[in-house]
Request: fold
Amino acid sequence: MQNRNRLFGKKLLLLSFILFSIGSASVYGQDEDSQVRVSDLGVVIDNYGNPIPNVKVQTKGNDIVVTSNELGQFELNATEGGVIILSHPNFYEKTVKVTDKLKDNAGATIQLDEKYLEKTEQLDLLYSVTNKNEYLGAASTIYNNELSSTLSNTIISSFSGRLPGLYVEQHHGFRSPSTSANATQDLIGWVPVTGQGMPSDNTQFYLNSRGMSPVTVVDGIQRDLFSLDPEDIESVSIQRDALSSILLGMRSSRGVLLVTTKKPTKGKFQLSFTGKYGVQSAINTPDALPSYQYAYLLNEALQNDGKEPAYTANDFAAFRNGTNSYTHPDVNWYNKALRDNAPIQSYNLNVTGGSKSASYYVSVGYFNQEGLFESSPMNSYETNLEIDRYLISSKLDIDVTKEFNIGVTIIGRIAEGNQPGAGYSNILNDIYRTPNSAYPINNPDGSYGGNVSFTNNIYSQTINSGYITDESRDIMANLNLKYDLSRFLEGLSATATTNISSQNRGATQRSKRSLVYEYTLSEDGQGGSYDPFGVLASQSNSFIPVSNATYWYGQLALYYKKSNGDHNFDASLVGDMQNILINYDLPMRPANITAKAKYNYAEKYFAEAAVNESHFNRYMPGNQWGTFYAAGLGWDIKKEAFLDQATWLNQLKLRAVFGQTGNGMENSGYYLWRQTFKQSVTDYTYPQGYAQGMGQGTIDNAPMANQNITWEKAYKLNLGADISLFDNHLAVTADFYRDKYYDLLQIRGKDIALLGFAYPAENIGEKLYKGGELSVTYQSNVGNFNYFVTANWSINASEVLFIDEQYKQEEYNKITGQPDGAIFGLVADGFFNSQEEIDQSAVIEGFDLMPGDIRYKDLNNDGVINQYDHTVIGREKPLSYYGLTTGFNYAGFDFHVMFQGAYNRDLYLADNTLMAGFQGYGQSYGQAYTHMIDRWTPETKETAQYPRLSAGGNTYNMGPNYWATSFWVRSGNYFRVKDIHLAYTLPPVVTERVFGGVKVKLFVSGQNVFTKADCDLVDPEISNFGNYPAQRVLSTGVNIKF
Amino acid sequence: MKIKKYMLMLGVGCTLFNTSCTDDYEVVPLEQFTLDFVFSETDSLGNQAYQYLNSVYSQMQNGHNRVGGDYLDAATDDAISSSLTENDVYKLATGQYTAASQIGSDMRWNQYYAGIRTATTFITNIDRVPLMDTFNDGQPLNRAWKSEARFIRALHYFNLLKRYGGVPLLGDHVYQLGEDMELPRNTFEECVDYIVSELDAIRDSLRTAPITDLSTKGHAVTREAAMALKARVLLYAASPLFNGQNIDPSNELTGYTDYSAERWKQAADAAKYFIDNYTFFELAPDFQNVFTVDANPEIIFFRQGGNNRSIETTNGPVGFSSQNLGNGRTSPSQNLVDAFPMLDGKSISDSSSVYRYSVSSMYQNRDPRLKKTVLYNGATWLNTSLETYQGGKNNPAGATQKTKTSYYLRKFMGAFENEANYYDVRHNWISFRYAEVLLNFAEAQNEYAGPGEDVYQVIKDLRARAGIEPGNDGMYGLNSGMDKEEMRTIIQNERRIELAFEEHRYWDIRRWKIAEDVFNQPVKGLVIINSAGVMIPNFVDVLSASFEKRQYLYPIPYSEVIKNQNMVQNPGWE
Reply:
């Protein structure tokens, strides 16, 4: 009992977190026994043990407030047994009890925990930094905490649901590296593939901001680089207005996705190590029909089509009873070729520190992710899908003199991938399309099963097809020079930046292929014969140069800043130039000069304007220079005298930005303005005479030139408001935009084929995007229980203003005026239930219809279904998406959960393998899935979900004449519990004693834990089963800091 | 050091801000071919121009398995596709197409105009090239090359003409972006006249058969090819669909608005001109060799298809694997089999034949061309006797592609009857051969002047070559003294079996305007039941085709009509 009491007492001590003592016990006042004076020895530190300045410390029930100094120290009178409260915008509020138990200790150290939702005064912009209260554009930013709880090979995984104004859709569950060469081998030698775009390491996500894919900028350099360690990232910001992106000149229409890596921290040496280990499993894979049901339904389909049945009653029995797994197999390929789960892990170690004049940040990281494919111990090599990534990043920041500062950054990355020699997406496609009954994995003699249609055994492809490795090597080196020119002119400074960045991608193919054998039971049932099919290929060894890219960037800038009373003036002149060499192409050379001026009066009225001259060398001479501009105004109403009394209001800022921007470069093609011809020997030859091997090359017409090709343009307007209330506990940001794009590259409406040439894209289209984004954050605490809720919502509407649309008979036919991307097609209206219904209905010419086929609406009532009955059948509503994160911090526990979803989203499930089944495969029929059981039959006509079965493709039901039909439009709305994270920081008392002051944090987390989608046939994002499936990741890890 | 270098580069880069800065790279990619390079004024060998000419050639199609993987003839009553999936020939045979939903593999409007553009580009630019070479008779080479391109352009126009009727003629103008492309259609008559005038104009500047260097120049267009095309064009123009039975009698776009027997005479004369003047050509001694042996005297013009096994693999009987793999794509019909006469030239229903036809032994004592055109149950192939009965080795149960009629295609393949394995065989697409010219003449002559001796002789020659017995009267089964209608039936049937699968039947039944009757009959196949070794054949309907009058001509693509105010749609497709 006594023991327990002692323990309990200790616990209390621990839990109250009192690392607080009273040094010199000078006693004041009259109440000498109950009042103690807290001396100057109180120190506030963060998780690394570094002091935190500007912490507000106050005693409860007392108005005395003191602030900690540069060394984190503070001084305060407090009553023993009383309570003091520490608060800081970046840290969770903490309440500490004053005890005299620690009276005699030398000092009191109080550790504060960083807030999950970071709040900073500054905002990183393209090439510069601004105070947030001066910013007039639309930016949403997330910081390290929000990025690092996700375990993935790319930082994009953590964007969705967190950044309003950025729509992220994952279409691939694993990276899909390119392994195709940047040159094609021809008889005349290697022929370069020209005009390839800038390589991106994002192969899994679509990023869309206000209808455009944003330009990614990593530490000031335009590079599509996402496979980075989240531990090294300080912030990611999506900036969507014209002013924020105007420095990009010809690329300024698209918005900026700004990735900023961590900067060195001056002061004491800090070390952080993070290790994460997780298990991934596939979600939302389709349910294949077992063999006997497949056979039964295929017979029904063939019968419907008036064809001979393929299976007999004996076959059904054999499939059902599994009597002979060689002649009547039932192989669930998903289970056989794929494992249930696979590991994923990540480790990062970073250190930072430095003296007054120089500081450093160095980080090394390793990441490994395995795929779900089976592999065999028989191989001495790995065949499974895998990625290994090594990252090293180092930054130096040196103050050479008081006026001169040098910053150096070097980021190096090596990524090595592996996959089965057959190519992992080929295997997934085969798994998806091969019926369970197609063939056995192995024949009785051990050979791989297969037949004339299925000539490449899936299991053999998985474990016995050799392997393909790919690797990419990246290096990015930045040099930033800053010179303070105040001695010449107060407030003037100059910067010079240069960057050299290069990427090398290659692959090594060591693949092979085995024959498959069809086993036929002999008529007497004894033994059987084996017929070989397919191709036997021994293991090859070839190296494939995938791409080579070198980027050079140079920038010179002058900045001028002047304050005169309430007048604050800022101006800058920035000139930059890039030299982008991709493979064998002539370099791309975009260049810009931008002048920018900024003014504010007492941080109450704001004005900003910029003008840009932009140049690109791949347009026709004379069309190479463009002018772009943007301007903004802001007003913080709270600063007005009439709102002085409204203490509940902290900020009420209105802001507006308008600009004219451009979208060029990538869509310029490779000198598209020149009429050229292409030569090829292997692709197109015309054989000469009768001689063998006398194929002679041809010179063919290349795409038709468009001499006038130029950048697309836009007028972009953004209106926004920032509101902060109740002592900054509640923050609301709202933005509205109206972006009108014009001169969009499109093929003209009168692209008459008599020209004999495919028409080139011309600058003719016009589209409107408009919508808004809203984010609301509430953070508060009850004592030491700190909690927060942050939610965001975005909506993006669009309208096609001009596409040079040709005559459309009916108003509802017209694309002009409808949203961009709206699906046009026929409106389905249930099923025909009898021949009489068919006879009395309008139908499409040329099809023999049967009961069970889909009925389409005759919108113009002309008695026939044709192109005049097309109307909008999907994606007509503005896409909306949202995210909500909530969490708390209490007693060492950190918890947060993120919900994410989208609505007004339509999927067009035109995948016939899934939706109709029994598609042609080789010389036979492919797989079908269990939902086909709900097909139309005369018995189930009331409840049928799908049209009658048909084998080998039924264009009438699946999309007559390649027209879309509303029958296959499904709601793509979904809601996901995207991320759950629980962390526990060991109490300092424990870490102090056991680990010598090292801070230890343990955590568990889950991604894609739960999904609720309107359509359960496919994953709402990865709706293509040939792509790697969506993953659920459950992980655990540790973070150590000192 | 590096840093210094880049700092320097930065400085230079920012000061020399425009393109005028000279450096390591050229301003525009020099490796790109421009028109001045392709038709170079300094290239006396014409290397690039010749490759461009190859491009003109390459836009002619190889007809083997051309239409969505099938022979075009699988869209007639001669065969169906064995494919398990919906296929283009099925849609063509059953009329599953409209102006807005075209069958891309045969309705190649865009591609023909692309071919015309390529040819015209060549024609208008080749004279810039200072070619030194001459051919045979000292003719300058660029005249020949230009004429070859003009022939191919004429062929494209003819391909358009037989599908759509009159189409816009673009002449020698290469249209550029920005020019008004809303061109009207020319009339049927204008198109025929244009094609014929082009062919007449180029005749004397082309190579003549025999070409000396067959191994490298055998594919080249010759004057004989031009005259064979002229004979074919005039035959089509004289045919009922365009001459007298225009589907829209007063519409000049869809055919002539009147009937003129003279047109038959022109067709007959054109064929006769060929027969009389180009005596180099004759019927190859062996029907089999026409398709697989190089440079036989029957071939007028071909597109090389390479030395391979692709036709065997695609169309050969199923039931073999490895090197002998066949996928049985084409299922010839019973209708076609029944069209072959008995060995003495009499039809199978003709009781005067010396051979008795019976269903149980229907392949015995037949026209020898039958077994060189189709493979049937019991035929010898790859050293085995084919089993195309239900459940037989070459017609197994299950869902795999196989014959739907119990027949497989035999024509075009090598002589693999008594071989163990397939090996590579020449698979050229013979687009013009002498037998067709003879048949063209016979048909036109019969229509214009009736069945004279010259008409009889053509049929006798063909039958003699085929291996049909001349009979005691030396008439190869022909009745003497037939009238024009009787002879017409004979010629039409002879054309069907002689030219089967060579892309004639599909157009013949249209231009003869008998498609509606032909497709009124079901396409038939065979189901053979093996009852304890006894083969019981059952005739079954494998396809109920349909044909509407408007299908005599294809619809012009809907988009072309919508975009072009002057484009008039064909009747029935508006």
Notes: Residues 141-164 of chain B form the longest helix (24 residues).
